[in-house]
Amino acid sequence: MGRWGVILDAGSSGTRVHVYRWLNSARARQDASAHELISLPDIHQKKSYTKKIKPGVSTFGDTPSEVGSYLQPLLDHALSIVPADQVRDTPIFLMATAGVRLLEKMKQNALLGEICAYAQAHTDFSLPDCGLHIQVIPGETEGLYGWIAANYLLGGFDSPDDHKHGKGHHTYGFLDMGGASAQIAFAPNSTEAEKHANDLKLLRMRTLNGESTEYKVFTTTWLGFGVNQARERYVEALKDTYRGTDGEVSHLMMDPCLPSGLTTDLHGTPLENSDGPDPVLVGTGQFKECVARAYPLLDKDAPCEDQPCLLHGQHVPAIDFDVNHFVGVSEYWHTTHEVFEMAHKDAAYDSIAYQKLVKQFCAAEWDEIKSDVEDEKWGSKVDQKTAQEVCFKAAWLINILHDGIGIPKNGLDGPTHGPGYNATKEIATHKGKGFLDPFQAVNKIKDMEVSWTLGKMVLYAAGQIPPSSTTSALPVGFGSNTADGIIPTDFQEAGSNANPVPIDTDDSWSEAAEDLAEKAHSRSTPGFLLFMLILILIGYVFRKRERRLRLYRTFRRTRRPGSPRKGGRSGGFFGASASKLFGGTRGSGGGNYERVLEDGTAASEFELGDLDTGSDDNEYSDSSTSESSRVGRASGLATPRINFESFTQNQNSSYFEPQPTQGIGLGVTGGGSAMDRSGLVVRTESRERLYGVWAGRRSRAGSPTRGKSPLMGALEEV
């Protein structure tokens, strides 16, 4: 039995829906190997499970009533993927990041309230708690989810013995950078972890066998240190440089971070000439000077009240690059790979080679660069805007990585290793067991995107696994680092459905067809492929209960009375995997999903090919406007009135105030969320009474949409 989850990543430039699938824990345990039993749930995703739209939800801060129609294509896309009979058991989350964090608190609350009310009224997805499912998550939470996703895909959780970095360390650090903020998350070495225990987050998950696993992670965020916000601060600093004694800014400002020959306004719009009255930026293409001018933006001279600090006076425990190896996503990947094609030259980040490429690019004339863009020298995804911005982005990334975080510039030969360190020996010892480079930019590991949304769904799926004993019954989630066995007051649980779909319920025909298609794709025999496709076709034709009954009666009439049933319940044409299509028993088997990057193959098998931004273009979606795709939609009850005065979250007054460790999505305190008190949960409960369920805990066993198959055998003991 497959389980599903839907999460919307509401970023600053757009919103992307991700649909994930995994096996019900009871079903997964049936055929699990010894290693799989001590592993986290096996999350599955396909390229077609994602879809992105622009702009970001923050653009609806002044018109929240319009956000529902904006999100509808994403809801339709999710509904087109999740089987109709499982929609009510599928949780939906929308988590907003830096773009919405910059809105005024009242606008944030209005926007979130409208989103929750719309989703409840227009879909049947499980949404029992607005405060938990529809959030503005702090940067610390975003970083923690990203850390979970990276280590999950790399195998650091499930195969720690294959990822020994020394000093008992087996996890990887995580770096993320968007347009408005940047995050870091890592597990400090044992010495630093003990020294800064109060600064760490306690993360608790549960493996398939029901045992708890705990990690202590440091995570923080720098709001205003994303590439777009950094560029705005850079332009303001440049204006100060060209400001005269009379306070007026010079008309022409030389910008070393723009290609030579490019003239733009202060917002980056290219200009044909500079005759206008407003100040303009004139590119000089001097990358070395660009790096130097971007350096002060790190604000490394800010007072540090809690040593040590990295950027802007924010405390970060000392990083031991002997054991802390970082994965960088988002802008770390785009800025190093979109134009410069590092993936085709070297899988590892080489600061010297990278800076050489950027310097050559930025020194070229703008007309030459435009011509290369038109000729698709860097691929069809690179446009003039990307080429125009990459020089500053590269300079900012280099400053953040090396002068900010302290990533060694020369990889394994850097200054972090002590006397007697043998790089060649270390590489040979760890070959095939992960990478030892201090930094590696990635986009996908195998076929799954390294996204913080995956981390959230891993945590949710782990929370669905029942504990094996009272000692492992502590809740799954995260919060402040407290003594063993004590649940901190700010602990945020995973929010998992405590009553998953019963194991004795058969997979829907669409899930079975998908599994068969995947199995057929893995076989090389054309005859087997044709056989599987025929089964899928038959399953589609006879997916209706009355058609199965008709087929069943036909087969009963053709069998002589008293003749034996050949093959038993799992044999013959309608046995094994085919029985899923016709209501066979749960013993018919269900293909186990293959864990991406299993058993320590790690970064040596990173997929570092061409940048895949197909989701931005929605090239694989044909359901965004289809009414037929909106299966599982509710009756469209009226949107309730929301009492926004009850929301109490604090508003940051500046990009450069250190971010709080508690807030929406990170520190859920007693008394329920503000959204609960506004009346939205009351509405949720009333809807669920109509469905005959309680707080999203639904069982498919009583689903009115599913009939009992005439071919279903007696239930087996589990």
Topology:
Blueprint: E1 2-10, E2 15-23, H1 25-30, H2 34-37, E3 50-53, H3 67-81, E4 92-96, H4 98-101, H5 105-122, H6 130-133, E5 134-136, H7 139-154, E6 173-177, E7 181-186, H8 190-195, E8 201-206, E9 212-223, H9 227-241, E10 252-255, E11 263-264, E12 280-283, H10 287-294, E13 326-330, H11 331-337, H12 351-363, H13 366-374, H14 384-405, H15 423-429, E14 439-441, E15 444-445, E16 448-449, H16 452-463, E17 477-480, E18 492-493, H17 509-522, H18 526-541, H19 545-558, H20 614-617, H21 674-677, H22 680-691
Parallel strand pairs: 1-4, 4-5, 6-13, 10-12, 13-14
Antiparallel strand pairs: 1-2, 2-3, 6-7, 7-9, 8-9, 8-17, 11-12, 15-16, 17-18
Helix pairs in contact: 3-5, 7-16, 10-14, 11-14, 12-14, 17-18
Structural commentary:
Keywords: ATP-binding, Hydrolase, Membrane, Nucleotide-binding, Transmembrane, Transmembrane helix. Residues 607-637, 698-718 are annotated as: Disordered. With 718 residues, this protein is α/β, with parallel strands linked by helices. Among the domains are: 1-137 and 612-697, ATPase, nucleotide binding domain (Nucleotidyltransferase, domain 5, 2-Layer Sandwich); 509-557 and 567-588, no CATH class. It has helices spanning 25-30, 34-37, 67-81, 98-101, 105-122, 130-133, 139-154, 190-195, 227-241, 287-294, 331-337, 351-363, 366-374, 384-405, 423-429, 452-463, 509-522, 526-541, 545-558, 614-617, 674-677, 680-691, and strands spanning 2-10, 15-23, 50-53, 92-96, 134-136, 173-177, 181-186, 201-206, 212-223, 252-255, 263-264, 280-283, 326-330, 439-441, 444-445, 448-449, 477-480, 492-493. Helix 11 packs across helix 14 (384-405), helix 12 (351-363) packs antiparallel against helix 14 and helix 17 runs antiparallel to helix 18. The chain starts with a strand and ends in a 27-residue tail after the last helix.
